[in-house]
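Case study.
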Amino acid sequence: MSSTITTSANNDEDLWDGGNKPFKASYGKIMMWFFIVSDALTFSGFLVAYGFSRFKNIDSWPIADEVFTHFPFLHGVDAPMYYVALMTFVLIFSSVTMVLAVDAGHHMQKNKVAVYMLLTIIGGAVFVGSQAWEWSTFIKGEYGAVETKGGQLFQFINQETGKRVALDEFAIESRSDRVQHESKNGVWFLGEGSLPSFTPNEVIAGVIANPQIVIKTEKIDANGRKIILSREESLKEITQAIYVVEGANLVNNEYGNRLFADFFFFITGFHGFHVLSGVVINIIIFFNVLVGTYERRGHYEMVEKVGLYWHFVDLVWVFVFTFFYLV
Amino acid sequence: MENNTHKLEIFRGLLKFKSNETKIWGVLIFLSIVTIVEVALGIIKPDVLMVNSILSVKIINWIFIILTIVKAYYIAWDFMHLRDEPQGLQFSVTISLMFLIAYLAFILLVEGNYIFDVMYEGFVSWNF
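After joint prediction, the assembly is written out as follows.
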């Protein structure tokens, strides 16, 4: 009788080399599950932090389908959500090819595993590319906005058409001697990003000169729509403008609350990083399949393990999609 | 590798597939339908669902959250083949996550709501 209790059904020799199989899962698979559970907590930390900031600003948070309205090659077409939905399908589909690869691995069909792995890699690459496009559109912005002294954001609407108006359609350019700072001109100068195309005063002059322009505020009414000011209120409020915001960066963005862009960058960026590393890992495994590593090993468990990771990335996207884009 | 141990029933036995491969395609079709419903609701935004709320959450958001959890279940159970794993592994993964995430979400959302109230009641001025 041994003095310790072991749960291993295998021989005790490889007990400390992963021979013990709790839940009938091998060492590698259990460790992948450990990683997935802890990574899921990291993502829920991000999403819950997003929820916290959103609840804190519940009456002024940007509405996602007014922000993500672009579709590649369709300029000026209002297509809320369509592209993100397409990205979701791409990711779910690449998840399916991954399961099929795992299934083919169970039947030791090397060529089938390789083909499905390749399709998975392509799907992942398409997704990462789409996300890069989404980021660049978000950073570039479309209409521009102004920020007030109190940190509120004003967007502009054409009263007659009800459509958003870009700053360059109404702002009145005046000769300005505000030039970009350069480090050669100042001893204490640290740095300056590029100046926006207009100064706040040019935008204010444009609003005063164009009677059809009104302000769309950040505030949300009882029906979940942004409150639009009347012409008189707009004229009064616009004088508070102190910054012109074009596009998005980590400090401010033209879509609304400053935190919105920060969470967009961190949550979709962290997820995109996972997809990217998933693609890299898939490529490594794909080449291992091609050279027959798993054929010699006698099983394709490694494909199953990266498959778990890949599905997890898909699973996270399902939640990001709901809580960032839909809710 | 266990070859013939796949459980091929979904929807509590309502649908039974002939092979693991057909089950995967079946789950894909189901997930696609759910996603299409979500996106359609998100674009149409029916007023009935937007204005009315249950437990101070809009009905449309309840629908989104429930459909998301349904999707998560099928991804975990069929794609990550938790369905074929022992019950101990299923519960170790899901119960710990459900408990910790629900706890974290509850605490932080209540706190966020409290801060909103403080600002809203005018105790702290927001627009100065």
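Observations recorded in class. The longest helix of chain B spans residues 87-120. Chain B touches chain A through 57 residues (CB under 8 Å). We will return to this complex in the next lecture.
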